[in-house]
Amino acid sequence: MTALNPTHDPARRSWIESANQPDTDFPIQNLPFGAFERDGEPRAGVAIGEHVVDLRALRDSGLVEAGSDAAIACEAAADGTLNRLMAMEPRYASALRAALSDLLKSDAPQRARVDEQVRALLPRVDEVALRLACEVGDYTDFLTSLHHTERHGRYKGLADPLPPAFKSLPIAYHGRASSLRVSGGEVRRPHGQYRDANGQIVFGPAPALDFELECAAWIGRGNALTQPIPIDAAHEHIFGYSLLNDWSAKSIQWFEQVLGPFLGKSFHSSLSPWIVTAEALAPFRKAPVPRAKDDPPLMAHLNGAFDQQHGGLHLELSAHLSTAQLREAGSAPVRITQTHLDNLYWTFAQMVAHHTSNGCNLRTGDLLGSGTISGAADEARACITELTNAGKDPLRLPNGETRTALEDGDEIVLGARATKPGAVSIGFGECRGRIAPAFAFAEQRVETPA
Amino acid sequence: MTALNPTHDPARRSWIESANQPDTDFPIQNLPFGAFERDGEPRAGVAIGEHVVDLRALRDSGLVEAGSDAAIACEAAADGTLNRLMAMEPRYASALRAALSDLLKSDAPQRARVDEQVRALLPRVDEVALRLACEVGDYTDFLTSLHHTERHGRYKGLADPLPPAFKSLPIAYHGRASSLRVSGGEVRRPHGQYRDANGQIVFGPAPALDFELECAAWIGRGNALTQPIPIDAAHEHIFGYSLLNDWSAKSIQWFEQVLGPFLGKSFHSSLSPWIVTAEALAPFRKAPVPRAKDDPPLMAHLNGAFDQQHGGLHLELSAHLSTAQLREAGSAPVRITQTHLDNLYWTFAQMVAHHTSNGCNLRTGDLLGSGTISGAADEARACITELTNAGKDPLRLPNGETRTALEDGDEIVLGARATKPGAVSIGFGECRGRIAPAFAFAEQRVETPA
């Protein structure tokens, strides 16, 4: 299947030169979907190099064959949101990516016609304001890294640091959809209740802010209530993936947590702007890391033949930290985490199958976060809590600064690249956010959002 | 304020006779908002006795003064959803209720003109299909009954059955919005993983199904991210209230719960169809039950002058159970719970203020469940787990049947009435659901919802 799809052809290059640079996240083999604002209006688009294809302009251009699946896909996205397109059978988005690949390749027959309308069709991505890629109904966050879970269990002093259910099912909780935001801009330090150094319960700006590096799957077609998605069909329901920074106010979380995370997370979660499609990632599929011999057997409803062979991805992920001092000195951000999707104990298809096994309905645009993707190695610890051994071993930056938590002005940039010999590497684009100081509580005004 | 609002006038009666019956939930003083389907199209409406005012038909009727606040409100609801109306300043919904009260009162000057269009304007509620009242963005469920929390802590054998945070903040978790359903119809028993009597982890139909009687607040106007709603403004953000049955698969929940409830709840949650407005409930406001003398002091951001005086409601709530055997014998449902909103330790305004205290944004249509409203008295236990002392003392029905959990065919009906001397009592309508047997897992097919 993979070999037949011309959008995967590693020999294909684009006449857009920025898409051919070896370090670009968006070569012609990627073509991820996203949303942006242009002239004050919402638009859906596809990233290519340093540009973005405006899908409404594309629809109006006459460049896509009328009545074709690609044209139908383009029309579905013309209102500026991706939800309708994501809800359709996968062949529509697939046809649109194939049509775009043909328009953007070096030897595109229609190159001259694209050039005539290039300003309307292909704005530079830095000329537009990126938006959240689609409307999220429900957001679920999982806990699927054994190392992340085990380390946190040890910090809590648990005799068995791994919860009994961990190897039987992908543990999860419902997250807050309203405070999901696209990468960029400020992450305001939240107020909250927590115990201070004397054990007193106080209310104030949360002292212990952390990032958590995650990968998130976007649901394409959903399922009806009472109708679970079988593990063998689960991959077909995943439209694509983005990076997720699950910012965490640990001091709030430790105090509040009885029924799971709540205000410790719901102040802001950041997503990278582009949905890298499952189709573009198909050449990077791999078998997930096998379960250990003494792990409990995998239950039938989580055990899929395709998933056991192809449910993982050759995907490397990283986190970089820059501080106000580093930026002032003109120093580059410091890489603090380098990890791999192999560090998940469960696949995204298993998350989908488990999530719906009770009949719960997923809807188009629902988001499934992987949980923090920490590995066994020190460099693969994917949050500051782990990187500092729960604060005992402060993070030391090259300029002498130390951190046990994020300080105001600190900026985290997450990245991810799928890489495999023989394939053109594709990236996720960045998921960036900078901590802004808490508002004084009295400064806060209630504004009704537009 | 209350005395001046003619919609509260206890002397007002309606020319719709079913609205004047002493046991009706929907006298002319109530006028709650809801949604329904008519001729295959979504409509917004207002309940009156056994009828519902079709707001699109009302807009088209010429009976509401053009350009008035009431007409603007009517227009906002004409697309069949309430979200736009709920997002507006409260005076619009208020004007619409006042206009309806004037059209429906016994001596309405426009009675004859209403009569001419009565079939279009006022279908019987049993002639239409009720829908979920509005589109829910995020659904949050709280845990605010001290007695419910304490009993469950004791069942778990905790030394201190009340979590340390309970009296400092209203504990909550994010719930699943996609599986919220309007009252009525079947609640399909879910599959899930749980430990059987031998301690083995199995996957199958969940044996321990329970109901949980809750009251839920609907958010009207929202707030922007980073801008908390002060406790003194919180009441203005609550559009109204409904009943919520937070069906729970306890066997699943006990096994899965690490980061809070997930599949043990997300298979189905039921809401009563009508949003009883905060305005209609204003005559029933009361001071919340005072905190005990040795409770920790209330923090400033949860301590509102209005809320401390008027943050409670004279609201009695009940649950009735009927079984297949009872129905076969023609026996009436058995009342198993009789409780009061006074059994909440926190007010809804405190839930709003806490929820947004970290800057989390609430959106119009967001739903805040109170948690199970159990009281100290045996009759005020609001779920079967408590009613049976965690299964030790089975519930005995008049026909000799016993229950430690809900069985297939069991039906739960929740009800609530606001009552106060000198005011006309208003009700919430029912929140009904009947347990249907689990599908065989192989019978389940993936269907893409319409």
UniProtKB/TrEMBL annotation, chains A, B:
Organism for this UniProt entry: Paraburkholderia caballeronis
Annotated keywords: Calcium, Hydrolase, Magnesium, Metal-binding, Phenylalanine catabolism, Tyrosine catabolism
Pfam entry (one): FAA_hydrolase_N
GO MF terms, alphabetically ordered: fumarylacetoacetase activity; metal ion binding
Catalytic center residues: H148 (proton acceptor)
Domain Fumarylacetoacetase N-terminal: 29-131
Hydrolase as UniProt keyword: yes
UniProt binding sites for Ca(2+): D141, E212, E214, D246
Residue span(s) of domain Fumarylacetoacetase-like C-terminal: 155-435
Record protein name field: fumarylacetoacetase
Binding site for Mg(2+): D246, K265, S269
Renumbered residue ranges of the record's region Disordered: 1-23
Top enzyme category: hydrolase
GO biological process: homogentisate catabolic process; L-phenylalanine catabolic process; L-tyrosine catabolic process
Pathway: Amino-acid degradation; L-phenylalanine degradation; acetoacetate and fumarate from L-phenylalanine: step 6/6
PANTHER family the UniProt entry points to: FUMARYLACETOACETASE (PTHR43069)
Sites where the protein binds substrate: Q253, T372
Record EC number: 3.7.1.2
Necessary cofactors: Ca(2+); Mg(2+)
